[in-house]
Automatic annotation (TrEMBL):
GO BP, one annotated term: DNA transposition
GO MF annotation, one: transposase activity
Pfam families reported for this sequence: DDE_Tnp_1, DDE_Tnp_1_assoc
Domain spans labelled H repeat-associated protein N-terminal: 39-130
Transposase IS4-like domain sequence ranges: 157-407
Protein name: IS4 family transposase
InterPro entries: ISAs1_transpos (IPR047647), Transposase_11 (IPR002559), Transposase_11-like (IPR051698), YbfD_N (IPR032806)
Amino acid sequence: MPASASCPALDLLTDLPDTARDAVLAAVRDQPGQLAVELAGVGDGRKPRGRRHPLLPILMVAIWAVLGGARSYVAIAEQWRHCADHLHIGAAGTWWAPLLKSGAPSMWTIRLALCKLDVAALEAAVCRWATGQALAAVDAARAATGTARRRAAELRLVISIDGKTLRGTINAAGEQVALVAIMEHATRTILTQAAIVAGDEIAAARTALSQLAEVLDFSGGEGGAGVLVTGDALHTQRPLATWLAEQGGHYLFRVRGNHPTLEHYARSRAWKQVPSTRVYTRAHGRRESRTIRVLSLTQAQSAGIAHLMGGVAQVIAITRTRAPLDGEATAARKPIKTSRETVYYVTSLSAHEADPALLATWIRDHWALENGVHYVRDVTFCEDASRVRTGVGPQVMAALRNLAITLHRLAGQTNIAAACREHAHQPAASLEVVLAA
């Protein structure tokens, strides 16, 4: 099983002889990993009287179980019960052995603990850990590939933000739990999430970004490039753009009909006079071309639309043309139709901070949040089919899934379903990854 990138000691195991491997394991097992340190501060909402099982081991075992594909409280309890030998052998002589003296908790105990915990503290702890791991992984990748010598714009930390409804959480009133997640582009790791209250996704986005701002300097620090936030049309809001500017960050947002005046402004530019860059791709039985045109605004032009969106430095138009490959239209069960669409974006980055190629890359990578996170949670972890809906349980389970996906991504896994099966088949090695994270 690939070692997690979150533990330098475990990264060495595959290259060490047995005696040296045992020495490394002994060194890292005496103290908790950073994830456990962060989770130790999460408040337990259960009443103290009669509490036998501390919250920390329940959280750690829950992560261990979800890492192997567990989808419910029952599956977490079964993991603890069926793999108790691995659990106690792995914990023997370590920092958390005393925490397991009460034995395996029931499903009801796990359910109560996860539904009653301080979810805000949990999200903050996960945010601190995931952000640190993502930054370390990005820095290591840059150092290994020599990209540290490239210009600052290409080293910019880029994050996507998008919302998702947990369909299985519908209650008698017809309400469903919805969450906003933030993903880092380079590593595809989930940094944090926040609950959408009363359908206000913008407020939830602000909450998630504010939580991230507590552990991450959006301005990039001295000589840094700053953080870029990508979002769909729903997040194209002037208050959010203003807040990002105050934090020293930047935005790249899509413009659609929910901002008709701004959309009209983008559409009415003299695009035929703007130089274009075109990219061709062939996949999935079709050929596709993307033409990007980027129009830089003067300070006067930017000030003229400040009442619509503050700090706009460039307006982007992308024309996508899709057509079937020769012979594919008749061979496919459903004919592929030729289509053409033009979409518009605005960004606070100037032309010298982001060229058309970078902008096109960031726009495409934004959808990795939908394909690499939301889709994985729906298909691999069956999130929409989950009937967990009591208390903060749905958000906690989503946070555990995010942690599992992040651990798999940091370990270099691209097929999360296969990674879950691998961890399920090797519970002892999987436990080491969780304890050392």
